[in-house]
Amino acid sequence: MGTIVQFFQAIPIDLLIIQTVNGIVTGMILALVASGLTLIFGIMDVVNFAHGELFMLGAYLGFVVFAATGSFWVALIAAALIVALLGAALQIVTLRPLIGRDPLNTILATFGISLVLQNYALWQFGPVVRKIPAPIEAQFTLFYLQYPWYRLLIALISAAIIGGFWLFLKHGKFGVWIRATAQDRVMAQAMGIPVPWVYTGVFAIGAAMAAASGVLFAPMAGVSHTMGLDWVLKAFIVVVVGGMGNLVGSVAAAIFISLLEAYATIFVDPSQAVIVSFVVLILTLLFRPTGLFVPTPK
Amino acid sequence: MTIAPIDKPSAMSLGRSRLSHTTVFWLVFCVVLVVLIAAPLVLTEFWRRFLTEVLIWGLLAMSSDLLIGYTGMISFGHSAFFGLGMYGAAGALITTHPPNLWLAILYGLAGAAGAALFVAFFSTRLRDIYFAITTLIFSQIFYVIIFTWTPVTGGENGLIFTRPHLSIPFLYDARFTSTTMHWFVLAVVTASYLMLRRITQSPFGMVLQSIRENEPRTRAIGYPVERYKIVAVMLSGLFAGLAGVLYAIQNQFAAPDFVYFITSGDTVIYNVMGGIGTLVGPILGAGFFHLLRELLARFLGDQFPYLIPLGVIFIVMIIFLPQGLLGFARRWLNR
Amino acid sequence: MSAAAATIAPLVTVDAVHTYYGKSHILHGVSIDIGPGEVVGLLGRNGVGKSTTLKTIMGLVQPSEGTVRLNGEAITGLPPHKLARRGIGYVPEDRRIFRFLTVMENLRTGLDRSGVDDAKRQMLLDKVFQFFPVLAERRTQPGGTLSGGEQQMLAIARAMMLEPKIVLLDEPTEGLMPRMVSQIRNIIEVLHKEGVAILLVEQNVPLTLEASQRVYIMEKGSVRHQCAASEIDIHHPIVKQYLGV
Questions:
Q1: Do A191 and C110 touch (CB under 8 A)?
Q2: How far apart are CA C73 and CA C76, in angstroms?
Q3: Around Cβ A109, how many Cβ atoms within 10 Å?
Q4: What is the value of pTM for the model shown?
Q5: DSSP H or E stretch at residue A215
Q6: Most exposed: A267, A293, B87, B288, by fewest CB within 10 Å?
Q7: pLDDT in tens, B16-41
Q8: Residue range C106-120, pLDDT digits in tens
């Protein structure tokens, strides 16, 4: 017991707090990405392998719009809207014909879409990493670091988007439509709800969330055609750990995993810290396969 | 495809057509085999290696078909099995002098089996979508381990080694030429095909198919579904690992790229394009994919993102031709 | 098996419909019709295809042959949500209310459509709360917390929000206490007075004969008999033949 206490006391508290902040920031972006994913799965029963690519496309579009307008915020909104439309189009063309078929088919179809989108981005933009400057350059002093305000802003915006969407689901006509469709697709139709369009709308919203995350994240690490891959994997882990279709669970899982990883980087190299999320996944699958934060397995 | 009882009136005609069915199958089989044996003698070096590689990818795709086409489990984890087969073989070829072909195969299979056991244990408790996602994540786990454990796996750069001799104890020992390499790969792939065919047509294989058709009912009848799935994953992993070994021997390097989940994705593409549940279909799918890629590169230049039209074709096939190129022959091939 | 003489054009016609579930041939050329405002009963043992007939009308299942018409216009192949908007209400077996939505939200799924302004909304809600005061009491509770009988009322109320021309009722009294059964009887009466046509599928023969004007009797996927409800009672040999245990 004594050695454990000594172990933790050896970690400087300022490093701990810095990593906590880092963990929360990354966690919020991951939460936004994962929310879109779990939304699409929860309501449409579609595993969207192309989600990472929508994230990536959002970032690229943000870059293009930013270059044209000079405004980060216009870029953010434009990218989200364009990707939403693209998502809707993709859903109508490739996923609607597959409704009612074995879910295996949609996994494959979204995988195909991810291939096409990724290579399209590579073709159009090349392997050069693009940069979008942050809208706010100011920094504040966090212990011995100059910490960018922007990072906190990302966390706030992500939270706002998720929160806003949560409210939209709970109130409002479309929120009721979406929830009714998720619970009983057949009866929703029998009540006059245009279910195929609800699906398209949900996919578009999920895509928009992914795109927004991409733009928000871009100033932190640059835009490249592979950025989607790492995020989609983590997002899938988050979704499984949080309980598929569970919005609150995904957010909680995203922050939880990101915090653990941030703390892990105190001890190991970042490329190995990723193992933390794998361990969490394995433990979840072993002991609470329906989701870590889901109260009782139903 | 349900396993329907043969009813009496057609038993007579079935008896006759069954005889000719088997004959036709073996005839076609022999013809194709002869063509593939003769091929390296008439093809250029490039196409020789191309064909050999297609066969290797075909083997990988076949192993995946056991899961997707027969047991109804989509796995994105084959890159792990393939990769561990590759690295296992690399391990044998680097640590033993002189490098031994059979030891490489042994080590490779052992590595793949280990990965398969790990994946099987967790993943078989989960239903389709969860299984697909977790196999994907597991293959990434292996990727990260291989990528970061540089002292053992060579990390980012992978491992380079020399090719072993084609040595059949007491009979033959010489370097591989691209032709003998091709024949060796062909022999292994053919043997694997025959074994897999035997397996899928055995009672074990029938149970797998029944799991694919209706898992709850199969469980209700009393079959220990989880155990069957584990064995299916193990078998699939072994053949995938074998493909990895062949690839390592053919190309003399092992790289973490192959363990990245994209390889699994490619495998699934071969399966879908070729026709799931046919065993040979995926080999055709692999051939089709690589041929198309090669042609696109030749006519449209190296820079052309060949994966875009290929991806589109893939998606179109899922929507309109979910049975793949050979899917229509599935019933026929499985008799 | 000629259709009952109807001098008024029927509201809904099912014309020689064949429906399959996978390879099972469930409906073998079923033909029925329902006049505007008529209460028509559909009787038969379990598994003869009564529910499937309702589902075919509602577009939840596509027939392989035959046509379904609404006001003379063919509607076969139209998606259910379009049919709901054209005035077909569906109350399925086991109710299938949205368990995680509140009572009010359940009603909203039918209310939130074009052509319903605030005044009409209020009017419809008032009407339904008048018929089902218990729903008014529980309006903010999730549907899953209601009792079986209350859920049945909600299912019917929800369909009423669509202002349907015809309501397809699938075994509304199943599993309900006798007190609730008579309440359902009253609701059918009320709907009939409002001019809403009803196609009633029921195992409860006396209730059906009492509530309906005409009845069809089905067996093994086709219609075997039809007549005015007043022509037969539970002791009639036809009833014993097709509906007896």
A1: yes
A2: 9
A3: 27
A4: 0.85
A5: helix A195-221
A6: A267
A7: 555 677 788 888 888 888 888 888 88
A8: 999 988 887 788 888
